[in-house]
Amino acid sequence: MAAAVKITRTDRTAAELCVLAAKSRDSAQSRRLLAIAMVLEGGSREDAARQAGMDRQTLRDWVHRYNEIGPDGLISRTAPGPQPRLNEAQMATLRDLVIAGPDAAIHGVVRWRCVDLRDEVARRFGVTVGEGTIASWLRKFGLTRLQPRPVHPKKDPAAEEAFKKTHLRPRPACGGRNGSRYFVCWRWSDRKVSGGGNPVKKHGPRAVARLRVVTSSWRSRSGS
């Protein structure tokens, strides 16, 4: 049977450890502090371990941690988790690549998709990840899926403006026939005039047209 490990750290008394246990917000650390305090007061290690909800071997391990680090050593350590697939420099390069956008001649696309970035990461860094991982990286970068509409590389803005001036004629200011001021919508006003319901089913299309003209003319005379 292995000998009991002595508590070699004597910078705190049992009473001080009880005060730390009461102030700690980590319940596991509080239990371990109380167990060590009981041992310092002369209690048996078996009783201290049982009241703290652990066995003697576990208490022995925590005594080692307390001797090396102190009360902070009684806090449970969290697992570091998996290693990142890309380092900081590679992530910065990927972010710049996403913001700059693809080159149609090289990448064959005019805007990035997760599947395109997945292939690009595999080609540049030799790392294979899924599309979900790419999407999480983009959210980590603070980027959004909203993108401007892609522009054809052979688009000529000057020719587009010339076409608009030559072939597109301006419409009347108010959208009326021959520039007259009446509205061509029966959505809510005509339903009120017609007494509610669907005016097409209730009065027929010709009556709806007359209601439209009457309502629009009233709006025109009122100056709205």
Poorly predicted residue ranges: 178-194, 211-224
Strand content: under 5%
In percent, how helical is the residue content? 40-55%
Q: Span between N and C termini?
A: 99 Å
> Mean pLDDT across all residues, rounded?
77
**Global shape:** rod-shaped
Major sheet details: none
Alpha-beta classification: mainly alpha
**Total helical elements:** 12
Number of domains: 3
Helix-strand topology string: HHHHHHHHHHHH
Compute the gyration radius: what is it? 38 Å
Q: Would you count the extended β strands for me? A: 0
In short:
It contains 12 helices and no strands. With 224 residues, the protein is mostly helical.
Written overview of the protein:
- This protein is mainly alpha-helical.
- The chain folds into 3 domains: 14-74, no CATH class; 88-140; 177-222, no CATH class.
- 55% of the residues lie in helices and 0% in strands.
- It has helices spanning 14-23, 27-40, 45-51, 56-69, 88-100, 104-107, 114-125, 131-140, 157-167, 189-193, 199-203, 205-222.
- The chain is rod-shaped and about 100 Å long.
